[in-house]
Design brief:
alpha/beta, eight-stranded mixed sheet, 22 helices
Length: about 575
């Protein structure tokens, strides 16, 4: 250590001075820690140790060297643990920040914060920065605040000091109005600190709630995230996970086996694909950490800094007047034949760019971000290739949460409708489809951002209303000639309306087909709705892109007199 050529122990070995027998702890963060330990063991020799401290750095050069030494200790607290992290295919906390942010833009805060816990010999191990790296930087030149939990220090566990650092950077993000990104890699609460660690979690949760709908909050789960720790990511807007190395769960496999007798592995219980396909907790699943960080950067390109700003507009180079002839043939002639709604999206938006959110969950509806003439839009569409595009509990909640996010952050909504209704069955009814389906209805109606809808084929029953119809205050509703706007499908309608007529007919099958044909001619088209103004225009499919772009340009100055209530991303 500069300015201290002799160790504290060597200065206590004079002829007239008692010799200390003290083995240096292996994981002391600095020589100053060692000196503190010696003071505890040798209270009879304070004068000698006081002379040691008087020999501490005195000149500017010595003090500067001391600063560099401590910074190096903070960066590489536990090299052996870093090697283990790399062996698992994981990056360190600082490496993740460096890859996520623009090169050279990261400014670290609270580098020299340390825990203050005395129990369980914790004072013998007080690493600089504790178990989290916090600060701010830029992504594509735009400011973001960030914290990254460090698994190499106390297993990334959260204690008082770590909680204070996270809260401080979240408060900074709220004050300056920029997104906050949290990288989670933690074993959970720091047991040695007891209830203090639980209180620290509570302080973080409060900030998640206060920032919801005000600034974008992004969570990257890049390791374990267990117990109460999972609730903070759950309250953020988007969760990224990495296959095989990310895990989220309230209780681990051992506890589950003890309490319920169930045997389950970590990956099956709370792995990336489990939460992307079954629970819907996570929104993105990446093959490795680098692709996860790259996806997070890509997501940020669609988002504004806060709820008072518009999302960033880019020059995509795609002609706003471009027409796509393939759209004329994308909907099959048979109403029962599926097609992929993502093909419609790719032909309409700029350069076919569609960043799908929750791709693996509730696949009968698609949501995600695209651009129209350089402006970000949120896309919601029924997916005819999955369950015929019906609405159910999972798809309603998935879409409602996405719509509410877009509304909170001034992102226009584009809805592509091809919905035959709500999924029937006791499982759905007992599971609360009425309550959950109403969330999507509420979200669309409450949204005050520009709202566009294109009816590509089926628009049946209450699901027609729910999917951003004119009745739910959509600004512009367009329909293709293939659209069918009706209470229900022709077959079901005829069976109900003409039941007695069919039963009394000598040729019931022929009579049913005749009545179905009559019903289709009269109702299975967009013109009955257009007569009443429920559809603003019936358009040629190839003209969809320029029509939508002109509509969005018209709506750029949209104002809503009713004050918008502040809300976040949690569905009702």
């Amino acid at each position: 250590m500069p300015g201290a050529a002799h160790s504290a122990a060597s200065l206590l070995t004079g002829a007239d001075e008692p010799r200390l027998r003290c083995r240096r702890p292996d994981r002391l963060a600095s020589d100053l820690d060692y000196e503190s330990a010696l003071v505890d063991q040798a209270p009879a020799a304070p004068d000698n140790l006081r002379r040691v401290r008087q020999r501490s750095p005195e000149t500017y050069e010595e003090k500067l060297a001391r600063l560099h030494e401590l910074r190096e200790q903070a960066v590489h607290t536990n090299p052996q643990a870093e090697e283990k992290q790399h062996a698992k295919g994981k990056l360190t906390a600082r490496e993740r920040i460096e890859k996520l942010l623009d090169p050279g833009s990261f400014e670290e805060l609270d580098t020299f914060v340390r825990h203050r816990t005395a129990d369980f010999d914790m004072l013998k191990n007080r690493p600089w920065g504790d178990a989290v790296v916090t600060g701010h930087g830029t992504i594509d030149g735009r400011p973001v605040c960030i914290f990254s939990q460090d698994f190499t220090v106390f297993g990334g566990s959260l204690g008082e000091a770590m909680g204070e650092k996270i809260v401080k950077v979240m408060d900074l993000a709220a004050r300056i109005g920029c997104p906050v990104i949290g990288i989670n890699d933690s074993g959970g609460a720091r047991i040695q600190e007891g209830v203090v660690s639980l209180g620290a979690y509570g302080d973080v949760f409060v900030r998640n709630v206060q920032c919801s709908g005000v600034i974008p909050q992004i969570s990257l789960v890049m390791g374990p995230c267990a117990g109460g720790a999972v609730y903070s990511p759950a309250m953020t807007d988007f969760i990224f996970m990495v296959k095989e190395t990310s895990h989220m769960f309230i209780t681990g496999p051992d506890v589950i086996k003890t309490v319920t007798g169930e045997e389950v592995e970590f990956e099956e219980l709370g792995g990336a694909m489990t939460h992307n396909t079954k629970s819907g907790v996570a929104h993105f699943a990446s093959d490795d950490e680098e692709s996860c960080l790259e996806d997070a950067r890509y997501l940020m390109s669609f988002l504004p800094q806060n709820n008072l700003e518009l999302p960033p507009q880019l020059d995509t180079g795609d002609d706003p007047d471009r027409e796509e002839g393939d759209l004329d043939r994308i909907v099959p002639d048979s109403p029962n034949k599926p097609y992929d709604m993502r093909d419609v999206v790719s032909l309409v938006v700029d350069n076919g760019e569609f960043f799908e959110v929750q791709e693996h969950f509730a696949r009968n509806i698609i949501v995600g971000f695209s651009r129209m003439n350089g402006r970000p839009v949120g896309v919601v569409g029924n997916q005819p290739s999955q369950l015929a595009g019906v609405l159910d509990i999972a798809s309603s909640e998935k879409a409602a949460r996405f719509v509410r996010f877009c509304d909170a952050f001034n992102i226009p909504l584009l809805t592509l409708m091809d919905v035959p209704g709500f999924l029937p069955g006791t499982e759905q009814e007992w599971g609360g489809i009425i309550r959950h389906g109403a969330k999507l209805l509420y979200a669309f109606t409450e949204a005050t951002v520009p709202k566009l809808t294109v009816i590509t084929r089926k628009a049946y029953g209450g699901a027609y209303d729910v999917m951003n119809s004119k009745h739910m205050l959509a600004d512009f509703v367009f329909a293709w000639p293939s659209a069918e706007v009706a209470v229900m499908g022709p077959e079901g309608a005829v069976n109900i309306i003409h039941r007695r007529d069919i039963q009394s007919s000598p040729t019931p099958d022929e009579r049913r087909e005749k009545l179905i044909g009559d019903y289709k001619a009269r109702f299975a088209n967009p013109y009955s709705a257009a007569e009443r103004g429920y559809i603003d225009d019936v358009i040629v499919p190839r003209e969809t892109r320029p029509k939508l772009i002109r509509a969005l340009e018209t709506l750029q100055t949209k104002r809503v007199d009713t004050p918008k209530r502040k809300h976040g991303n949690i569905p009702l």
